[in-house]
Design a protein that fits this description.
Layout (H helix, E strand, L loop, with lengths): L2 H51 L2 E4 L3 E7 L2 E2 L2 E2 L5 E2 L5 E4 L6 E7 L4 E5 L8 H4 L21 E3 L13 E13 L2 H7 L11 H25 L4 H5 L3 H17 L4 E12 L5 H33 L3 H15 L6 H15 L5 H36 L1 H19 L25 H21 L1
Antiparallel strand pairs: 1-6, 2-3, 2-7, 4-5, 8-10, 9-10, 10-11
Length: about 450
């Protein structure tokens, strides 16, 4: 074999070796690619599962939630086929961000709000005081700093018109979000950032809204009440303000519910504190006197006629006014008199005793008149026969009756012969008689004091 043949054979062997190495490298590369694609598929499947499962979220017990899908509120169907937008407490699923956005809103948490826009300006030192002094305001009310509201114009007696009165008031209310869909649709709020409390952020928008609506309701309500009713803190004022505030929130479909509204402090301007205290004191004394008078009236009526005395008295007055009508027939008058007797029988106490005494006195007078009539009828024939004798007998009987009722008796015989004689008699009165008079006077005085 020549040298040329040997070189050619070595070249062929080298080519065969190179081709085998290339095939082996391609096979290893193919295997590596297949493993890589398999791992990539697993990773992508895991990512897809993680992406899908990341849409699972929990709504807490005191929350409701809305799901925004591409910015629109998503609808959910219940097992009964009902369509709803609000999700209650529990586990739910939605497409993760950026496809969906979860809006969680507390619905049972109550927020408190104080409205002092109608209160006078106070410095920091004045706010720290637990009690108000009699006067520590400026000489006049400053409308730039001092808040106030107007009460109804209450015309004074003898004055055709009277100016409106000014009062200062503090208001407190508690509210909560009841319908989160209406709240989200109609009330603007700043979305809370991570770590921020929802209601603390939302209050920046809701509190000014509620203050404005409540202020309008307070102004519209207070002008319907007098300053006395306002300062006495009539319960109707707070109820009417709450009613107006609730109606306005419902009209704008805010989804906010007012749990309570109070006006704990309503007062007059500080500049007239002394004068108003004097006026309030006078009114309180007047009310006290009126209460005492009414109590005395009720006590007297109760003692005189029992529990139904006032009712019976009113009915008797009405009957008395009816009897003044001349057009009434005798039957109608008799019927009214029967009703009057029926009402009188319902009285108790001293009135019933007086009625019983009056009926007994009437019976005695009637019986005595009948007896006198019978006596005079029987005496008439004797009088016609002996008039002077009968008159003398009647006179003597009358004198005897008068003398029986007299405590002391003095008999002076007329002088005889036509001569005037002066008789002076010193008589010691009965000591028991004077004692009885003093005792009777003392009892009458005690009865008068008890009646007062």
């Amino acid at each position: 074999m020549t040298e040329k043949d040997i070189q050619q054979t070595e070249g062929d062997v080298s080519a065969i070796q190179a081709h085998g190495e290339a095939d082996l490298a391609g096979e290893f590369l193919s295997r590596a690619l297949r493993h890589s694609f398999f791992i990539l598929k697993i990773i992508m499947a895991v990512l897809v599962v993680l992406f899908i499962t990341s849409g699972i979220f929990r709504v807490e017990e005191n929350e409701n939630a809305l799901v925004l899908q591409f910015g629109r509120i998503r609808e959910f169907r219940t097992r009964q086929g009902e369509v709803r937008h609000v999700l209650g407490p529990g586990l739910h699923w939605a497409w993760p961000e950026p496809i969906s956005e979860i809006i969680r809103i507390p619905v049972k948490r109550v927020q408190a709000l104080t409205i002092d826009s109608f209160w006078y300006f106070e410095t920091e030192q004045e706010k720290l005081r637990t009690t108000r002094t009699e006067y520590y305001g400026g000489p006049t009310l400053d409308p730039k700093k001092d808040g106030y509201c107007l009460t109804r114009s209450d015309s004074a007696q003898g004055i055709a018109e009277s100016d409106y009165s000014i009062v200062h008031a503090k208001c407190q209310l508690t509210y909560r979000v009841d319908d989160i869909e209406q709240f989200f649709r109609n009330i603007y709020y700043e979305a809370p950032r991570p770590g921020q409390d929802f209601l603390d952020v939302v209050s920046k928008t809701v509190d000014p809204l509620l203050k404005a609506i409540a202020g309008e309701a307070v102004v519209a309500t207070m002008v319907n009440y007098t300053i006395d009713e306002a300062i006495l803190n009539d319960d109707r004022i707070a109820r009417e303000v709450e009613k107006r505030l609730t109606a306005k929130l419902d009209r704008i479909e805010s989804g906010i519910v007012i749990d309570a509204f109070q006006m704990p402090d309503i007062t007059w301007p500080r500049q007239v504190s002394r004068e108003f205290n004097d006026s309030v004191g006078a009114r309180n004394r007047r009310k006290q006197v009126m209460v005492e008078a009414e109590s005395y009236r009720d006590r007297i009526l109760s003692e005189a006629g029992g529990a139904k005395a006032a009712e019976v008295l009113a009915r008797l007055k009405a009957m008395h006014d009816t009897l003044k009508d001349d057009a009434l027939t005798d039957e109608q008058r008799q019927e009214i008199d029967q009703k009057r007797q029926l009402y009188l029988s319902q009285l108790a106490g001293a009135a019933q005793e007086r009625l019983a005494e009056a009926r007994a006195y009437r019976t005695r007078v009637v019986e005595r008149a009948k007896a006198d009539a019978d006596y005079l009828t029987k005496l008439l024939p004797e009088y016609r026969r002996y008039p002077r004798l009968v008159i003398q007998q009647i006179y003597q009987e009358a004198i005897e009756e008068v003398m029986d009722n007299a405590d002391e008796k003095f008999f002076i015989q007329p002088s005889s012969g036509g001569k005037k004689k002066e008789i002076r008699v010193q008589i010691n009165p009965d000591p028991n008689l004077q004692r009885r008079r003093v005792e009777q006077a003392r009892k009458e005085k005690e009865n008068q004091q008890q009646a007062k």
